[in-house]
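Below is a typical protein record.
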Amino acid sequence: MNSTATSPIPAPAIARPYHPVRLLPGLMLSAALAFASIEISNNNWLQAHGMSVLTIAIVLGMLLGNTVFHRMGAQCGSGVAFSKQNLLRLGIVLYGLRLTFQDIAQVGMSGVLIDACMLMSTFGLAYFLGVKLFKLDPDAVMLIGAGSSICGAAAVMATEPVLRARSEHVTVAVSTVVVFGSIAIFLYPMLHGLHWWQGRADFGIYIGSTVHEVAQVVAAARTIDEHTANTAVIAKMVRVMMLAPFLLLLSAYVRRRQPQAKSPTTASTFASRTAGMPWFAFAFIAVVACHSLWPLPAAVNSTLLSADTFLLAMAMAALGLTTQLASVRRAGVRPLLLGGLLFAWLIVGGAVINMALSGLF
C-alpha cells in the first residue's frame, strides 16, 4: 500500500467497529443523497440521455465529498463505509430480481454466446491493454474492464469488494462508463441506419451485448423501434446475469495471486481460501433462480426493486463521498484512453461477433 495515500475520512472513523449509533449519521447522509438522486433522475431530459440513478448518486456524492464532507468525516465515516461495503452487497443480491432464466430463451443460444464472447473478449482486451500497454494499476484495469464488458457502474461496484480496490479507481472506472456509454446513446441509432448492417443480425442483441449501462441500452434502443428496445433489454439482462460467474472466477484469480503462508493450519487454510469469496454472488444466483421458479407478486417485486435501487444509490453516493478529485486527476488520461479503446472494440468487434454468431443456432 502506498504510504503517501491519504483518505478523505479520518482513520479513527474507519477503524471503529460498526455500531448502530455510529452508523446512523453516515447512513442518513448516504440515504439523503440517494433520495435526491432518485428525484433528480425523474427528469425527462436526463432519462432520455441515459443518465441513471447510480450515475447521479456518485456525482452528488463527489460534489459533497470534495467540498464540506471533510468537516463531518469523523461523525459520518462509519456509516458511509457501511453503505459503500455492506449495503452494496445487499443491493447486488436484490439486483437478481430483475432477471429470470426465462430471459435466456428469448434471445436464444446465439444471443447467450454473443454476450459471453463480448464479455470475455472485452475484459481480456482491457487487461492486456491496461496492464501491458498503459501500465495501469491492475485493480483499476479490472474495474474498467468489468464496467465495459458487463453492466457498467453496477458491475464496477460489484467487482470492487472482490478486489478491495481504492475509491479513486472505482470512480475512474465509473467515469469511463458514463462518458462512452453516453456517446453510445447517440451513436448506435446512426449505426442502425448504415446499409452494411441491414438484414445481417438483430440490432437489439447488438445493442444489448455492447452498450455499457442498462439505462443507456434503453435510451439507445428506444430511438430505433419497440422490437429493438425489447430485444436489447433482454440481451442486456442475460449479460448482467453473467456477472455472478464472472465474480466467482475473478475471486479465484485474486486468491491465487495473493501470497499464502508457508505452513498454514487446516483452519487458516480454509479461512484464506474463503476470505475473498464473493458470497453475495451465490446469493445473487439464488435470487435469480427463485425469481425464475417462483415469481413474486408484481407489487412486491416492484417494491423490492425500488429498495434495491435505493440501496445501490446509497452505495454510489458513499463512494462519491470518499473519493477525492485530486486522486482521480492523478490517474491521468490513460484510463480514459483505455475506456476509449474498449468502446471502439465494443462497436467494431461487437458488430463482427454479432454478425458471425447470429445465425449459428
